[in-house]
Amino acid sequence: MQTSAPLPPQSPLAATSIRAKLVAAAGGPTAGALLSLMAALVTARAFGHSQLRVVVPLGFVAVLIALASRFGPIVSVVGGALSAMIFAYFLFPPLFSLRVEDPTARENLSWMVLSAIALSYLLFPPGKNQLR
After folding, report:
1. What is the pLDDT of residue 1?
2. What are the tens digits of pLDDT across the range 56-66?
């Protein structure tokens, strides 16, 4: 009669859980918020002297929705607020101030934040689009 020795602990299971934790940390909402911040800075720099700068926030909604599809809708909330501040500070006169003189630009900033939040929660409800 042959007795079997206990099997060693399964290391792939431990590696999988560590790998999942690393992916979750690197691909979490913080990374998405930082990406939206970087995208807003690049966009503000690219359109700083353009005639189209008033409508830039409305086009930036697409970036926020794309980030929400990967990182979850909370990124649109945080990213929309950060992007609005970046655009107000670097894009609209008076520059280097959060005050925006142009009423159309103020409205577009508001619409950017509101539509990014609403669309991201409608298209990607929390808990249903997790890629983990």
Report:
1. 59
2. 999 999 999 99
Distance, in Å, from the CA atom of 3 to the CA atom of 131, rounded to the nearest integer, reads 43
Residues 6+ apart with CB under 8 A from 14: none
Q: How does pLDDT run across 44-94, given as a tens digit for each residue?
A: 999 999 898 899 999 999 999 999 999 999 999 999 999 999 999 999 999
Q: Looking at the predicted structure, is the pLDDT value of residue 14 above 60? A: no
DSSP assignment, residue 91? T
CB contact set of 128 (below 8 Å; sequence gap of 6+): none
Which residue matches tokens 């560590």?
A: 18
Let me know: does 94 contact 101? Beta carbons within 8 Å.
Answer: yes
Chain centre distance of CA 107:
21
Domain ranges within the chain, ordered by starting residue: 29-123
* DSSP state letter for 55: T
∠ Cα 123 87 114 (to 5°): 30
Residue (of 115, 124, 97) closest to 59 by Cα position: 115
Integer Cα distance of 28 and 38 in angstroms: 16
